[in-house]
């Protein structure tokens, strides 16, 4: 018997001025791409890259048709891999899924087993996607700060784009670990929300987007930057001696007009964070930390669950920086 299911499919359009179409379609297992594991999907989530895919911004989709959604959680239905058996609870994030390979905005998906990790028992499937790619990236930033010797007693940590998905999770984790967190946001109405996650002080984003001097007053022991461009330049210039700045986003731009001064005079470390191609050992380590270091109650605070039918309309919203926390997608609603 052929399994029928729904998926959000992006197709190339022949209509002038409309490069692509987005619609929910009925598919079957025969439509699925190659792979050795089929997963029944419980949840996916909305990330910045998903917004780009849904709107066509940046043309990150490499081939059509495409099922977007760069992450998902679910249960193995069929497997020819020795690593996974039917009934196993799994998570997938990254690996080009939702860009080059079909992704999580579907009730069912076939993928390569090497892309999957076992879901920690302490996390439900919904919690796993409330964390998702954004939370994985945030925890990788925190681990990089720790690996660089940045401890809570060293001073405050600044988180840019703090009300977004990565920023919200980073604020919550850092506060839970005892760090003093300054949240940067251009939305003053989000201060109470960020305070509930553990932020103790706030900066308007305009304070970090003006002209930069090579070295500014030493302020931050470390940073989680989700914005890039001028904001990242200013954060680096304000970082304390032997501080660590983690860079994981480009919402503000891809340019970085800085100097070598913070690096050679203050020993500042700029650590790039990539969750897309991280190996399984790294992912297992980080997911284990997320299961213990992110308070479960916080996930409820930062999470909104929406049906798959609503997700196309939210693409422009996340690109405009108008979402808050984590948006989880339920393909079965």
Quick summary of this structure?
The protein is α/β, with parallel strands linked by helices. It has 9 helices and 15 strands. It has 2 domains: 4-119 and 298-330, Quinone Oxidoreductase, Chain A, domain 1 (Alpha-Beta Complex), CATH 3.90.180; 133-272, Rossmann fold, CATH 3.40.50.720.
Characterize the structure shown.
The chain is α/β, with parallel strands linked by helices and 333 residues long. The protein folds into two domains: 4-119 and 298-330, Alpha-Beta Complex (Quinone Oxidoreductase, Chain A, domain 1); 133-272, NAD(P)-binding Rossmann-like Domain (Rossmann fold, 3-Layer(aba) Sandwich), CATH 3.40.50.720. It has nine helices and 15 strands. The protein has helices spanning 48-55, 125-147, 165-176, 191-197, 229-237, 261-265, 280-293, 296-302, 311-319, and strands spanning 4-12, 20-28, 37-46, 71-79, 89-93, 108-111, 116-118, 157-159, 181-185, 201-204, 220-225, 239-247, 269-272, 303-307, 326-330. The strands form three sheets. Strands 3, 4, 5, 6, 7, 14 and 15 form a seven-stranded mixed β-sheet that branches. Strand 12 (239-247), helix 6 and strand 13 form a beta-alpha-beta unit. Helix 1 packs across helix 9, helix 2 (125-147) packs across helix 3 (165-176) and helix 2 (125-147) packs across helix 7 (280-293). The two termini are 23 Å apart.
């Amino acid at each position: 018997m052929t399994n029928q299911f729904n998926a959000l499919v992006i197709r190339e359009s022949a209509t002038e001025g409309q490069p692509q179409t987005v619609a929910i379609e009925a598919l079957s297992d025969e439509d699925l791409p190659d792979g050795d594991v089929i997963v029944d999907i419980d949840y996916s989530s909305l990330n910045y890259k998903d917004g780009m895919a849904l709107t066509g911004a940046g043309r990150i989709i490499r081939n059509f048709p495409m099922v977007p959604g760069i992450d998902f959680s679910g249960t193995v239905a069929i497997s020819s891999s020795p690593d996974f058996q039917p009934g196993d609870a799994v998570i997938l994030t990254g690996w080009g899924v939702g860009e080059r390979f079909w992704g999580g905005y579907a009730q069912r998906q076939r993928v390569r087993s090497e892309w999957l990790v076992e879901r920690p028992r302490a996390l439900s499937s919904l919690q796993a996607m409330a964390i998702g790619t954004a939370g994985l990236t945030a925890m990788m930033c925190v681990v990089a700060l720790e690996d660089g010797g940045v401890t809570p007693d060293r001073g405050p940590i600044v988180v840019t784009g703090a009300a977004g998905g990565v920023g919200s999770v980073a604020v919550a984790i850092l506060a839970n670990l005892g760090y003093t967190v300054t949240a940067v946001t251009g939305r003053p109405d989000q201060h109470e929300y960020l305070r509930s996650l553990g932020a103790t002080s706030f900066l308007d984003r305009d304070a970090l987007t003006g002209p930069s001097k090579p070295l500014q007053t030493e302020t931050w022991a470390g940073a989680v930057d989700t914005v890039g461009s001028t904001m990242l330049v200013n954060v680096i210039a304000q970082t304390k001696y032997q501080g660590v700045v983690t860079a994981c986003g480009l919402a503000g731009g891809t340019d970085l007009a800085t100097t070598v001064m913070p690096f050679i005079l203050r020993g500042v470390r700029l650590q790039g964070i990539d969750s897309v191609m991280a190996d399984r050992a790294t992912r297992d380590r980080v997911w284990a930390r997320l299961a213990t270091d992110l308070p479960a109650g916080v996930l409820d605070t930062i999470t909104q669950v929406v049906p798959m039918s609503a997700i196309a309309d939210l693409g422009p919203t996340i690109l405009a920086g108008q979402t808050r926390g984590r948006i989880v997608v339920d393909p079965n609603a």
